[in-house]
Amino acid sequence: MNDYRPGIHFRLDSRSGIAPYRQLVDQVRQAVESGQLRGGDQLPSVREVVTQITINPNTVHRAYRELEHQGIAEGRLGLGTFITPRAGDVTAASSRHTVVADLKQWTEQARELGLSEDEMIELLRRLLNRDERVSS
Amino acid sequence: MSSDAVVLETVGLAKRFRSRWALRDCTLSIPTGRVAALVGPNGAGKSTLLRIAAGLTRPSEGTVRVLGDVPATCDVMQRVGYLDQDLPLLDGFRVREMLRFAELTNPTWDMETATRYITQLDIPLDVRVESLSGGQRAQVALTLCLAKQPELLLLDEPAAALDPVAREDLLRLLMQQVADHGTSVVLSTHALGDVVAICDYVVILCNARVVLSDDIDFILESHRFFTGLSHDGTALPAGVTVIDEQRTTRGTTFLVRVELPVDEERWQLQRPTLDEVVLAYLRSGVAGARHAQSSGERDSNGERR
Description:
The structure holds 2 protein chains of 2 kinds.
Chain A: H1 20-33, H2 46-53, H3 57-69, E1 73-76, E2 80-83, H4 87-112, H5 117-128
Antiparallel strand pairs in A: 1-2
Helix pairs in contact in A: 1-3, 1-4
Chain B: E1 6-17, E2 20-31, E3 35-39, H1 46-53, E4 61-66, H2 74-79, E5 80-83, H3 95-105, H4 111-120, H5 134-146, E6 152-156, H6 164-181, E7 184-188, H7 192-198, E8 201-206, E9 209-215, H8 216-221, E10 223-229, E11 241-247, E12 251-257, E13 268-270, H9 274-284
Parallel strand pairs in B: 3-7, 3-8, 5-6, 6-7
Antiparallel strand pairs in B: 1-2, 1-4, 8-9, 10-12, 10-13, 11-12
């Protein structure tokens, strides 16, 4: 096999209901977010992934295409697929997006439950201060 | 490599054995380069469909094209590999002799690939095939099939009755072949757990008919469980098709086909696994179209908008 390289060991959860290519994409994104994968790191070749976890090669191709589309990976002709230098920024931006979306949903729920704006702000302040009175 | 966009195409295909229909009104089209799973209960017509595609049995009705041609013609036979439970191994032959025999009988044989696979599987070349384990026999048989370098592989339950390790080795071999040669595969299986990992297309057969035939990613993205309290009169949103429903005293869970994205607040939505989708279709027994009348907003004619 190949030399050691900073890498990722893919896993497939057939019980999750999430499309397999999407699972691989998410795992690369998480590895970039955690710093396990950085710009310039090479992703395992399709054949390596196929041999590692007995997966349909079309699924791996599709995942890599999607990562390229998202700007997280890039194919270099004849060399393989690599993490882009700006991958960290891409995942960070979308994490921020997710946090904002979650917060928006939370405020809507809180409003439906009849919480006032002051109460919401107070709740957030306590959470930020790790105040134990919020835990209930 | 074939430039045909479709490896297996059937229209109104049917097979009758005396008074019993083994396959009925089967119309499907499997794209090139895919690994397609045929799933369904025993007797649903999976083996019959594969045997017709391999040119081993003639259909009673309908048409079938394999790699753009009629099955069993000389040209197609060269380009198709077929394997079922009845492994094509000759007792008394050593593994090495089996490979040599295959080389002499197949013009497209690739001995280098065959030897590499056998070595990778740790199968001794000088052992007689009848003294190999069940798993090794299946692996040798698949190797014989793969080294023929077919464009299309038709496999009838290739991993049935194998222990987990032998099964993994066999499926890995198959996936490597697909990675290296872009081989199209149509395989029947009961192991739904394997399907998500190794297949990208699924055909569900039930009662000798096709009930669903589509891309697995698309199937997962377009089906959801909708759970709601019963008696609250909440209708399902327009545009969803109910495949299956399960009622409890507290509420009802529907497995539905949806047009995404769904932004539905009155229902609790969950992603089904492929097994759950397959089981729902098998339980409902017919294509989801039977329940097409599920829109919450029927017009006055009761017709689907």
